[in-house]
Amino acid sequence: MFIVDQPNGQVIPPGEYTAKITNKFNQEIHSPKPVVNITELTATPYPNLELSEPLKLKSGDEFTVPLKYANKDVRISGALLTYVNNEGNRSYIMLQILGVDYDGAKLKLGIPKSYNSELTSTLDQTIRLITSNGEGSNPMLKHPIQIIK
Fold first, then answer.
1. Weakly modelled stretches of the chain, pLDDT under 50
2. Which of 5, 25, 33, 43 is such that its CA lies 20 to 30 A from the CA of 75?
3. CB 104 within 8 A of CB 94
């Protein structure tokens, strides 16, 4: 899965797109065939976080995340917080989904009260949403989400 938006946040219109690269001789080369096909399928919602500092939360805390492409036709069934465990592998904790505001494009999440460890999230794929339309995750963050005691 990859996020298909223009740098200004606008959706790329459906269609077939070619690639344009600059080679080592500083010449622009265009691909002879389309390399990406954007379909008219319903967009998968994803968290659109922009943190100006680390978000520090405790067990039982609730927080709201803005959604890009919030859509009543796409059911959100799970939310995972990604972090790197002590062995250096990606791991996840399941967040509580406390509510979805489709009109305001917001998702209310909670840290489970039973979670009693500290962690610092990854900066990429920090919050992964599991939806009826696939998975969606946030663009790269500047600051992590931290669970503290």
1. 1-2
2. 5
3. no
CA distances to 18, 21, 62, 110 from 67, rounded to whole Å, are: 29, 32, 16, 16
Which residues make Cβ contacts (< 8 Å) with residue 31, sequence separation at least 6? 18, 19, 20
Q: How far apart are the first and last CA of the chain?
A: 34
Contact 126, 137 (CB under 8 A): yes
Query: Which region, left, alpha or beta, applies to residue 7 given φ > 0 means left and ψ of -120 to 50 means alpha?
Result: alpha
Q: What is the pTM of this model?
A: 0.74
Distances (CA, A) of 97 to 6, 50, 60, 127: 29, 20, 12, 12
Over residues 22-53, the pLDDT tens digits come to 888 999 998 888 887 777 766 788 888 889 99
Distance CA 107, CA 91 (A): 22
Tokens of 80: 């995972």
User: Distance between CA 62 and CA 24 in Å, rounded?
Assistant: 50
β-pairing, 55-57 vs 145-147, is: parallel
Residue with tokens 């223009």: 6
